[in-house]
Amino acid sequence: MPRVSGADHGAADQFALEDLDAFLDRLLDGALPVKAAGDGQVSIPDGAKLACCASGEIVRLILDGRLFRKSRLTSERGYMSVLVDIEEVGALVRGPDHGGLTGLEIKDRLSATAKVAAALIKHGHLKTITVINPVNRCPIVVVPVVEVERFAADYVSLFALAKQ
Question: Taking a C-beta distance cutoff of 8 angstroms, is the pair 35, 75 a contact?
């Protein structure tokens, strides 16, 4: 927390050195010192990019004690010395699975081409829903699994019929 808020006056917030040192101590608490980043270890800003989240979310995970695999680069100081395991971060920031199928998954499920899957969706033969992508948190259009199963039970492709 800033000691003096400058936002009301168009200035930068002012922090006490003791508060910043305490923050860094909490951030680095329990971090294993390493000479170089290992496989899957990244800095907080790089982890935020790779996990499609904010750096603040990773810091909050560290401060709340939810990240267990963290290290400290001995060649760096402060915030940039913290290394986190990208798989652990990804698992904690990933949202719930939406349970739907994307166009590519529909293509595989129906043994069709991507164009056919897109046309089935476009012309309303497969009902879609808009959900939040669990990885990048952007809205995406998916088709519920039951809808694809309903379609597959009612229709067969000419190729599959000829093959039978």
Answer: yes
**DSSP symbols for 115-127:** HHHHHHHHTTSS-
Q: If DSSP codes are grouped into helix, strand and coil, which group holds residue 68? A: coil
Q: Residues 129-160, buried b or exposed e (16+ Cβ, 10 A)? A: eebeeeeeeeeeebbbeebbeebeeeeeeeee
- For residue 8, the 8-state DSSP code is G
Contact 105, 88 (CB under 8 A): no
> CA–CA separation, 44 vs 137, rounded Å?
19
Q: Tell me the domain boundaries of the chain.
A: 7-93, 100-163
- In 108-148 the beta strands, taken as DSSP E runs, fall at 129-132, 139-144
Which residues in 35-150 belong to E strands, given as ranges?
A: 41-43, 70-73, 82-85, 100-101, 129-132, 139-144
What average pLDDT values come out for the chain (164 residues) when binned by 10 residues? 78 86 93 93 96 94 94 93 95 88 89 90 92 88 92 85 86
> Which stretch of DSSP H or E encloses residue 32?
strand 32-34
Model pTM score: 0.71
